[in-house]
Specification:
This protein has 232 residues and is α/β, with parallel strands linked by helices. The chain is built from eight helices and ten strands.
Length: 232
């Protein structure tokens, strides 16, 4: 089956995500494998907020999946600071087209994200903040328009966990380069985690050098094993 052109990131000749399992994939690889609900619950009990970093905002699939995941887990009083990066931002109209395949499942969440995204001037580099309010609480989306290493270096505080994305190492090697993964290690709290769909040897070696203990955990769909790292 031919993939519609709007689903393909023309800069890397790769689709933004698996059009069948995209939401389930994000929830398994990034949320379940990072024990996200347990960690958010602890942050609520302590009166703190959790900080998430993401490499590769793309069409916002992971943020939509996160809204759905928090809703179905019946959480409340959640406050997440969510830091992401996009070098080649898309228009809100294209975002809507890319995500429209999930309207039967998360139409309200897609609409919420697009309305927040519309207020971001993606022509201006650097940080942009959009607050996403939901019944479970709020996600403070901090989107860096520019290069991933610049975004990581600009973080004032380390993250509790990282969603490592932005296409695979073969399609977008700069997103998985040693220098960037080392910087992510520096901006991860002790005991923090990272997750990724790729288990490529070079990625595992760089993350180990960055201070992570690497585990292979169950994937989703056609991906049997994915990566989780725990910061020593």
């Amino acid at each position: 089956m031919e993939i519609p052109s709007y689903l393909v990131n023309e800069h890397f000749d790769d689709r933004y995500f698996d059009v069948v399992n995209a939401l389930d994939e994000a929830q398994q690889i990034h949320f379940i494998n990072n024990n996200l609900i347990e960690r958010i619950s602890k942050s609520i009990d302590s009166g703190d907020h959790i900080i998430i970093g993401e490499t590769g905002f793309g069409a916002g699939r992971t943020v939509v999946a996160l809204m759905e995941y928090l809703k179905i887990n019946n959480l409340s009083n959640v406050y997440i600071k969510y830091y992401s990066v996009e070098l080649y931002p898309i228009t809100p109209e294209r975002m809507n087209s890319i995500l429209s395949g999930f309207n039967n499942r998360v139409a309200k969440e897609i609409d919420t994200l697009i309305k927040a995204y519309e207020n971001i001037d993606t022509q201006v580099p650097g940080w942009h903040i959009a607050k996403i309010s939901q019944p479970f609480g709020a996600i403070e989306l901090n989107l860096w328009i520019g290069e991933a290493l610049e975004m990581v270096q600009a973080l004032e505080k380390p993250c509790d966990l990282w969603f490592l994305d932005g296409h695979g190492p073969k399609k977008n090697p700069s997103m998985w380069r040693h220098e960037l993964l080392m910087a992510i290690g520096d901006k991860t709290k002790a005991g923090g985690t990272c997750s990724s769909f790729t288990v490529a040897g070079a990625v595992r070696r760089s993350l180990k050098e960055a201070g992570f203990t690497i585990n292979k955990l169950p994937g989703c769909g056609g991906k049997n094993l994915v990566l989780q790292g725990v910061k020593n």
